[in-house]
Amino acid sequence: MTASGLAELAASEKILYTPRKISYVLPMSTICPSRDECLRLMTAHGMLPHIRAHSCRVRDVALAVGSHLVAAGVALHLPLLEAGALLHDIAKTASLANGGEHARLGAQWLTALGYPAVAEIIREHVWLSRHPAEPGPLREVDIVNYADKRVRHDQVVSLAERFVDLRRRYGRTPEILARISRNEARSLVLEQKIFSYLQITPTDLVVMIPCGGGDAENSTGPVERR
Ligand SMILES: [Fe+2]
Questions:
Q1: Average per-residue pLDDT in the chain?
Q2: Per-residue pLDDT tens for 77-135?
Q3: DSSP label at 3?
Q4: Cα 93 to ligand 1 centroid, rounded to whole Å
Q5: pLDDT number for residue 210
Q6: Domain spans of the chain?
Q7: What is the model's pLDDT at position 216?
Q8: Distance 88 CA to ligand 1 centre (A)
């Protein structure tokens, strides 16, 4: 999709945001953009540096969890997991400037680019439409949703610490606070489901994933420090 096409899409959402120039064409034949393509998309959409750093850390957590799950026999597409994690907040800058739901807008952008699987991850990264207690295999959407709940800014933290942060930042009304609490309860169920497959614990992620320093954008994943 061209820059003008994206601008039209944004306008249709009553969003005044105009993406920066996009001077490349994404291949439409793959399930997800490559890491480099994701980084270019982040730049093209003016992702703020702190959101970029957060997204890279969410990618680290998603890949750490995902690679251990794959080793345990769970079927996950790791490149899709990485792309979904890197791009989950692709529309955050636009929504900060103009309002709107960044998960829905980002999903529309990736659908328009021909990546519906990435779009689904973005759409579901705040709130999973399928309750984690429902039977069914773990999916890439579950892992990115969980990883986002384990990263405060660019630091790996516990679910409890992250939800304290979410209440402080977004809990403006009793209704929103209640929804955040429901989301925390769902995230705890999801965490138990994920780690039921693994030999590591949720706390181990804090030790496994380096915080700050290094070339975070080009990291190929977590460093085992245990
Ligand atoms: Fe996020």
A1: 86
A2: 999 999 999 999 999 999 988 989 999 999 999 999 999 999 999 999 999 999 999 99
A3: H
A4: 12
A5: 73
A6: 3-218
A7: 57
A8: 6
Q: Letter for the amino acid at 164? A: V
Of 57, 80, 84, nearest to 214 (Cα)? 57
Residue with tokens 């614990």: 201
Cα 214 to middle of ligand 1, angstroms: 20
Around Cβ 183, how many Cβ atoms within 10 Å? 17
Quick one: how far is CA 101 from the chain centroid? 14
Q: Are 68 and 45 in contact (CB under 8 A)?
A: no
Distance 103 CA to ligand 1 centre (A): 10
Identity at 89, one-letter amino acid code: D
Task: Find the 203 Cα to ligand 1 centroid distance in Å.
Answer: 19
CA distance 149 to 188: 10
| pLDDT recorded at residue 17 | 40
CATH class name, domain 3-218: mainly alpha
What is the distance in A from the centroid of ligand 1 to the CA of 200? Answer: 23
Instruction: Tell me the CA–centroid distance for residue 94 and ligand 1, in Å.
Output: 14
- Mean pLDDT for back-to-back runs of 10 residues, the chain (226 residues): 45 39 48 95 95 97 97 96 98 92 96 96 97 95 98 96 95 96 97 97 92 54 36
Q: How far is the CA of 56 from the centre of ligand 1 (A)?
A: 10
Residues 50/127, Cβ–Cβ less than 8 Å: no
Q: Cα(81) to centroid of ligand 1, in Å?
A: 14
Ligand 1: centre distance to CA 55 (Å)? 6
How many whole angstroms separate alpha carbon 70 and alpha carbon 53?
Answer: 25
